[in-house]
Description:
Keywords: DNA-binding, Phosphoprotein. This is DNA-binding response regulator. GO terms for molecular function: phosphorelay response regulator activity; transcription cis-regulatory region binding. It holds the Pfam family Response_reg. InterPro entries: CheY-like_superfamily, LytTR_DNA-bd_dom, Sig_transdc_resp-reg_receiver, WalR-like. This protein is of the alpha/beta class. It folds into 2 domains: 2-118, Rossmann fold, CATH 3.40.50; 144-245, CATH 2.40.50.1020. It has helices at residues 10-23, 36-46, 62-68, 86-91, 104-135, 188-194, 236-245, and strands spanning 2-6, 28-33, 50-54, 75-80, 96-99, 144-148, 153-157, 161-167, 170-175, 180-183, 199-203, 206-209, 213-218, 222-226, 231-233. The strands form 4 sheets. It has a 5-stranded parallel β-sheet, with helices on both faces. A hairpin with a 3-residue loop joins strand 13 (213-218) and strand 14 (222-226). The longest helix has 32 residues, at 104-135. The two termini are 43 Å apart. The model has no long low-confidence stretch (mean pLDDT 85).
Amino acid sequence: MKALLIDDEQPNLENLQALLAAYCPQVEVCGTALNAETATNRLHVLQPDLVFLDIQMPQQNGFDWLRSLPAYDFEVIFVTAYDQFAIQALRFAAVDYLLKPIAIDELQSAVERARQQRQLKEQNQLLQNLMHFLKAGQPPEEPRIALATAKETRFVKTSEIIRCESSNNYTMFYLLDGEALLVCKPIFGYDDLLKNYGFVRCHQSHLVNKQFIRSWKKEFGDFLVLTDGSEVPISRAKKEDLKKALRLS
């Protein structure tokens, strides 16, 4: 997630940036701001996923700054030295709030909740896009999926994805041109989305594009052999559903 840090004291910005770098590798600090005016300018340019917002700032505090925005789609984590602001922060539907000095475990928990909330919103938006096309009576001409890697967000055609493989909270996307993209999201977040475009779940950790399946190998276990030469295991729990998806039963 790209994060914008807003605080009227430079040492606080530097401290928070250091904590995020050391303990929250899923967060990339894309910018900082010492006041509301600068924050607004940075917001339009950087378009962050997450904003760490100091509540007490001169001229325009954190709450007033949010009210001044016509709309916003980033997650907010308020940062304050005063606990009495907590209730008001929650009324703004913030993901969380942190008390200064910031505790590492609370910072990590707040970031994780923000990540989950962001993921949920993205999935809901993708679902709304799909429903729009379905109601219009036609599928999207060039269906694409947004894959956020550590360095960029790539927009990839679903027809160019050969398979997906999970590793804990990460998913590796193997593409038709041989490239592999590592995304910081678990594979179940893509299951319902991609099944609308011909993908099947053959294993807890594997999602495969049916158009790239070459054969079903039954030697030393069950495997799908794909057109790129890779072999993907088939779990017992998924075998019957896979047969139905491939019209083998």
